[in-house]
Amino acid sequence: ISVSQSMRIIALYVTGQRYVLEGSSAVLSRANQALATLERYKLRLDEVAGTLSALEIEDLVTVRDAMSVSQRLEMVRRIADELEGYVIELGTDGRLLSLQLEELMGGVEEERELIVRDYLPGGRQKRTVEESLFELQTLTATELLDLSLVARAIGYPGTTEALDGAVSPRGYRLLAKVPRVPSSVIDRLVEHFGGLQKLLAATVEDLQAVEGVGESRARSVREGLSRLAESSILERYV
After folding, report:
1. Last residue of a domain, one of 141, 168, 195
2. What is the per-residue pLDDT across 75-132, written as a single tens digit (0 to 9) for each?
3. Contact status, residue 72 vs residue 115, Cβ threshold 8 Å
4. pLDDT band at 238 (very low <50, low <70, confident <90, very high)
5. What is the pLDDT of residues 143-174, one digit of tens each?
6. Same structural domain for residues 81 and 179?
7. Residue 236 in contact with residue 49, Cβ under 8 Å?
8. Is residue 18 included in any domain, yes or no?
9. Rounded to whole angstroms, how far apart are CA atoms 200 and 186?
10. pLDDT class for 10, splitting at 50, 70, 90?
11. Domain limits at 74?
12. Which residue among 137, 168, 199 closes a domain?
């Protein structure tokens, strides 16, 4: 720690790097600007995610549609990371900011993983979810604006033809929106049916054929998916 002769500048030296401490008012001002940006990006994320859900129900998804959501999720995550730094720096002055950040980011981390699980390409050179998320994180801010590079990070060819190609989700993301369905059951449902369209077409009896899915849970899943399908279509066209 070093303090200037005027006592106005305090600097921390950590692992060879110099970090100048600023007054809480200056930090809070930047934090509020970042929070406003996060709110705008989160609103746009909700819009593209809602559109994707409707396209999934209708089986009209392209790689571009899915990558747009993945791109927005990564953008939101990066802004939130910046805000986390401000929260730490502000200490007790950052409590309200922390609550706002927590509310805005609810479910985002889970959504980042689910979108990759839904659209991760198969094949001999298949990547893991963790590898794909890491590749997304290593993209620069400029690279993240390029959907072809986002697609390549997840394992698709980075070409226009690939972006416009049709793709079907496995169903993890929409199943996660159905209340009171454990992740272990979601995994078994996806493994059994192989894709969202077959899940949407499944009857209560079909769902009961999956291990761990009794009649009550089968009805809950069937009704939950039906409600999601109806609301997604209404949001898109009404």
Report:
1. 168
2. 999 999 999 999 988 988 899 999 999 999 999 999 999 999 999 998 656 789 999 9
3. no
4. low
5. 999 999 999 999 999 899 999 999 999 999 99
6. no
7. no
8. no
9. 14
10. low
11. 23-168
12. 168
Tokens read off for 81: 């990371």
Q: What is the CATH number of the domain that holds 176?
A: 1.10.150.20
Q: Are 97 and 86 in contact (CB under 8 A)?
A: yes
| CATH number for the domain harbouring residue 33 | 1.20.1260.110
Count Cβ atoms below 10 Å from residue 199 Cβ, excluding itself. 22
Rounded Cα gap, residues 227 and 224, in angstroms: 5
Bridge partners of 14, per DSSP, are: 17
Q: How many CA atoms lie within 13 A of 143 on its CB side?
A: 12
CA distance 98 to 86: 9
> Based on the domain organization, do 70 and 148 belong to the same domain?
yes
How far is it, in rounded angstroms, from Cα 116 to Cα 153? 10
Residue with the two structure tokens 């066209």 = 237
Are 148 and 57 within one domain? yes
Closest CA to 186 of 211, 152, 161, 160: 211
